[in-house]
Write the structure tokens for this entry.
Amino acid sequence: MLLDQEAEKASADKADGFTDVFAKCGTDGGYFGKMRAMGDDDYTRPTLPPNPDRKMEFKGREHIMWSINNYLGLANHPEVIEVGHRALDEFGVSSPMGSRMMSGNSAYHQEFERELADFTGKEAAFLFNYGYMGVQGTIQSLLGKDDIMVMDKLSHACIVDGAFLAQSMNGAQLRVFKHNNMDNLEQVLKRINRDRKGGVLIMTEGVYGMTGDLATLKEITDLARKYDARLYIDDAHGWGTMGSQGRGTADHFGVQDEVDIYFGTFAKSFASIGGFSASTKSVTEWITYNARTQVFAKSLPMVYVQTLRKTFDLVKNGDDRRDRMWKISNSLKNGLRDLGFYVGPGEAPICSVFVPLGEHSMEHVGARTAGFLRQNGVFVTAIAYPVIPLGLLMFRMIPTAAHTEEDVAETLRVFREMRDKLGLRLTMTEDEDKKIRKVYGV
Ligand SMILES: Cc1ncc(COP(=O)(O)O)c(C=O)c1O
């Protein structure tokens, strides 16, 4: 569909025998193009108040917010803000200037890296300006010609982009295994080892952020060892929430020592920005000197380094917060199951609620259900194909330590009303159930 005169110009260009690079911009193509064409500001790019909290005002009414990764409720923590004020007074907003490689290194960055390495049980750690960039740069820096990346099919976009970069820049090869399917992973590794020339890196998430299921890390580490492969875990959603003191998903399974490179972001349970990888000294140094996204980009600003170190204390000493998060997560999941909703079997706090589309379109069911929740003060994110299989809609909810049992009760009341007023079919057909189980690799 053409949206404006840009598109007319594009047609005119075509008549001249070429297509303008901007031609598509005047159409409803691209990611979320249909929503953009509809002028949607409910589900894509909703305008929210700048202070993330368990309740937020949206379109003139208060909503219980289930869409932000503030797992431990640390967003806007007064002690972190206090440290931020002091850091601003001391360092201003521009510090440090430049990339770590050139003029953006500091003793504060290095000290924080030592703390992260100690805590994750690795020899060294490297701080990234952005989690996404860190993952991409790590993969690009390590995988060269003759090397093979073995990636879980449902890996996050930053792992995929890192793999593409390593392929196109370095000539590394990519193989994909079925989500959390250990038979398939073993088949892939076995086939690779028949005529392998270089190294192999298995790449998975720790907690899958969309659905909340855990990578089967015990089995994956066994296979990595058996087939002489290295293992890289992007634990964006497990870091801070899982394992002892929030050490992450590998610690939860007791296999942190078997993970060759551990990645955590600060954008979720730390409610901030940035990330890190931890590994041996030589691997970490290699990443430091070779990850293009870090060598050629400004380093993590000092205000974040300082506030993150405070947040790190709160996370490490935050068992009470993790307990509250789990309580809220269990109440929400159990309550929704009691109402008849299909809640995914993910073991992380994330609560994924599946609704079958039946003979209706995603837009129809999505607008009715998500619209109902929004009109009744419950803010959730609706996820559809291609993130989940065709024929299903999923509400992804993030329970946090900041939520209260009253928030859960009110949310369950609204879900019950939605179920009854919209006459939703909640029981899955055999085929729908199979599709969901495939998402979870069970
Ligand atoms: C699994 C996973 N990895 C990496 C990232 C990127 O992290 P950041 O937001 O810190 O750039 C995300 C963020 O959504 C994620 O979910």
In short: The longest strand covers residues 200-205. The mean pLDDT is 94.
